[in-house]
Amino acid sequence: MAMKREIRGSFKYGRSAYDFQEGTMLFIGAGQVASFSHAVEHANTETASQGWTILFHPDLIRKATLGKTIHEYSFFNYEINEALHLADKERRFLNTLVDTIEMEIQQNMDRHSQELIIQNLETILKYSNRYYDRQFYTRTNINKDLASQFERFLQSYFASEELSEKGLPTIDQCGQALNMSGPYLSDLLRTETGRSAKDHIYGYLIERAKTKLLNSNDSVSQVAYSLGFDYPQNFSKLFKSKTGMSPSEYRNLN
Fold first, then answer.
1. Distance set, CA 190 to CA 39, 44, 208 (Å)
2. Closest among 50, 57, 55, 48 to 27, alpha carbons compared
3. Hey, how many other C-beta atoms are within 10 angstroms of the C-beta on 207?
4. Do 175 and 74 form a contact (C-beta atoms < 8 A)?
5. Phi first, then psi: what are they for 49, rounded to 5°?
6. What pLDDT score was predicted for residue 104?
7. At what angle are helices 197-214 and 232-243 packed, to 10 degrees?
8. Calpha distance 159→168 (Å, rounded)
9. Would you kindly state where each structural domain of the chain is located, as residue ranges?
């Protein structure tokens, strides 16, 4: 994770480049490849960098609580253009946590060092999660438009032949349709509507399934296949988990 300020340069993430802005924070998961290049104001002169970068091996947190919960911080899977933009007070607060980690690393290590470093790492992540929520809220007008676009995408997908041919759209597919990552879309929707992207997808599926069950003589298996399920029992299990009754029970009840 990195926070960069006042840098004239680019951050390369795969084949894409992202220009740093004031108070921008980025998160990159293990195994991903990235590089940073400075811009040059004059010949043989590099611009000064401001900010910090923390790189840590997964083994550092593997036995700690953070090792079990780090997958919950979905921003490690965001695209590079979905960075966190910090207010001054947010940046200053995170800087104090980073200074504490640096102090622990530079002094003589003892039996408390690793625990304290991990605690501060976890605090940075928790506050970053809060700041991302703030970012979603402050962009609510844009997010409402994106939520509407997502609804239109689902309407179009479920009305097409793609559902029966390809099955349910994945969260990544939905994100790509709106030019963003799947995890970012899901978090945006959860903030805006209280429901994740997967909840929205299942909601459309169940409504379409109800319509098919009540307006056709197709068997439950045929309905399942038409909705893109390879195995009817998976459809029945999902339907019951969302409605409290099996497809057959729903059909007979209505």
1. 38, 48, 22
2. 55
3. 11
4. no
5. -95, 145
6. 95
7. 100
8. 12
9. 2-138, 141-253
Query: If you ran DSSP here, which 8-state letter would residue 246 be given?
Result: -
72 Cβ contact list (under 8 Å, min separation 6): none
For residues 136 and 134, give the distance between their C-alpha atoms in angstroms, rounded to a whole number: 5
- Rounded Cα–Cα distance for residues 125 and 219 (Å): 49
Looking up tokens 């999902």 gives 238
C-alpha pair distances (Å), 185 with each of 149, 178, 201: 11, 8, 12
Cα separation values, 20 from 25, 90, 131, 148, 160, Å? 9, 17, 18, 29, 40
The pair of structure tokens assigned to 148 is 């509407």
Pairing label, strands 16-19, 45-46 = unpaired
Cβ distance 104 to 113 under 8 Å?
yes
Homologous superfamily (CATH) for 141-253: Homeodomain-like (1.10.10.60)
9-13: strand order across its sheet:
16-19, 9-13, 34-38
Q: Which 8-state DSSP code applies to residue 8?
A: -
Task: List the pLDDT tens digit at each of the 254 positions of the chain.
Answer: 988 865 555 555 444 444 445 458 888 887 666 665 555 444 444 444 578 999 999 999 999 999 999 999 989 888 766 888 888 899 999 999 999 999 999 998 899 999 999 999 999 999 999 999 888 877 767 767 888 889 999 999 988 888 888 889 999 999 999 888 899 899 989 888 888 899 999 999 999 999 999 988 899 999 999 998 989 999 999 999 999 999 999 998 86
Distance CA 144, CA 138 (A): 11
